[in-house]
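A common beginner's mistake is to predict each chain separately and then try to dock the pieces by hand. The better habit, illustrated here, is to supply every component at once so that their relative placement is modeled jointly.
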Amino acid sequence: MDRASHFDTEALTMLEEIMEDEFPELVQVFIEDSEPRVSALRQAYENKDCTSLREIAHSFKGASGNLSALPLADLCFKVEEKARGANLEDIQPLINEIDVEYQVVKSVLLSLIK
Amino acid sequence: MKILIADDNASDRLLLSKIISKQDHEVIAAENGKQAIDSYVKYAPDIILMDVLMPEVDGMEAAREIKRIAGEDFVPIIFLTSLVDAQSLADCLQSGGDDFLTKPYNFIILKAKIDAFVRMKKMHVTLQKQRDTISANNQHMLHEQHVAKAVFDNVAHSGCLDSANIKYMLSPLAVFNGDVLLAARKPSGGMHVFLGDFTGHGLPAAIGAMPVAEIFYGMTAKGFALRDILREINSKLKSILPVGFFCCAAVVDLSFTKRSISMWMGGVPDCYLLSNQGAKLKSIRSHHLPLGVLSSAQFDDEMTEHSMGIDDRLYMWSDGIVEARDSEGDMYGEERLLDVFNQKANPELLFEAVKNSVNAFVGESERDDDTTIIELKMVDESELEQSASVQEKAAITGPSDWQLDYELGVNSLKHFNPLPLMMHIMMEVPALRSMGGQLFTVVAELFSNAFEHGVLKLDSALKSTPAGFAEFYALRETRVKELQSGFVKIRMMHTSEDGRSGIFSFSIEDSGEGFKYSNALDQSQPKINSGTPSTNKFSGRGIPLIYSLCHSLEYRGCGNEVVAEIHWPQKAIVK
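With all components supplied together, the output reads:
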């Protein structure tokens, strides 16, 4: 796995240092929080609920950004922006990308705490 | 410090909590805006980190509410946001945020910002504490000043200032000023007036007034001359005031009977003496340095004499009058003052005219000096007696109607000299102080007669030769030692009709056998006084001298009792 294409590795290292033995807990909390988000995004898209789309994407963006998963945060930001503009075009593929990217991020993080 | 973190993202909360606890701060976490407000109320955190977009109540709304609750307490709120457009960031600050931090966090900047706000918070807490301390101190000081001012006013502007011949104006300044105005009637008649202006303002200036007033009233009541009072005040001020602090003063000894004043002026503006129904104006210049400058040795107590007819007036003021400023900062000046006098108004209205002129000039502007002015009018002293205050003031000048019986038994007579005690009691009467020497002679002579000739039964004839003198004292010593019985009874009595005259009576009775005094004593008194002491029986007892000092001297009983009367004020002794 090419970690650098999914994370800001420098920031990730720093994060590990800062969190010390609480890093695994941080990873678990992040995964618990994020797990329902992808399906929540899909649900909101089907309901054409731009507000929910924007809020979920925004939160997801913040959380993944702080875990230094910048490509994932970028994808979330795109959804957030489109939802803000009530533009549902191309959202479906973006959600798919988020789903894929999240699975990678998750496996990388889990590998770090084993 | 207690730091509240409000973020709906569990992972973000965890991350921030970790960073902040590593900086040794206590962390309180909230998951939304509502919890943030509740936690603020419950835990009173010092700093708040707040996510902008949160469910329930969002960050900006929570910030507004928290700032409202905090009131004047400073609670820094740092917004956590991944919003990047300028308007969103500006909105954060608009809602009451103090700063923002964009996600993803840069840990170094996060730490630095928290440190910065911790410093700011500490500074604010210190400032608030200091503000509260200052406010409390100020309250305390105002209260103290209020109490002290009441005491000061009682001390510094008292005495007989309300006499019929005095008009005065005191500075209207609410707090302490350095001006002192004192007036006191002299026990022997006449009046002392003291107008003083201490350097500076406020409490430091006022505090010097206390000893001045003490000395002025105390010594005047005891009958001291004004020169002595001035010397005492000068030396007191010299010793207690720091260098550079002194008291400018105009001091007057006013004699109603001589129709004149003696003045001492040091460092004050010219005083004006208005005579001939306002036709003649004479200015009197200060020739001395202020009080408290020179040592006693260098101090010059020379006073100038000025005669004053009935209704002539003396005006004295502190330099606050001359230096009073109007709203433009111009000084009132001596010329304006002189103009008022030169208008030759009715002298009766002049004081009001001066007062009005100064007040009109100063107007509403802040007075920067203390303005004190006094008018002193020459009147018949009898006019003053009509004012009610005189009787009242007379009471504080000492006991006037009293009687004391004092009996000394054998042991006391052997070992105790009652003269100092008796003198002390007499000296409480102000009018008797000036006769202290004379009273002492009378009392001492009569007491030793009673003790030596009466109780000890020594013969006065012994003292007529030098050898007899020695024998007398040897015998006296033996008899004192051997004394088994005897007494001396002393009675002192003082009465005063009106505080202006009085009678002091001193009687003494001993346990001795008395002696043969002339039955025609009363009739022979003038003869005795006229200088034939050697021919009468009293010669050995020093009686002729006492006769000359007393209004009357009368022996009673078998000659073991004698009553001396002294009247005051003293008329010229009849020869």
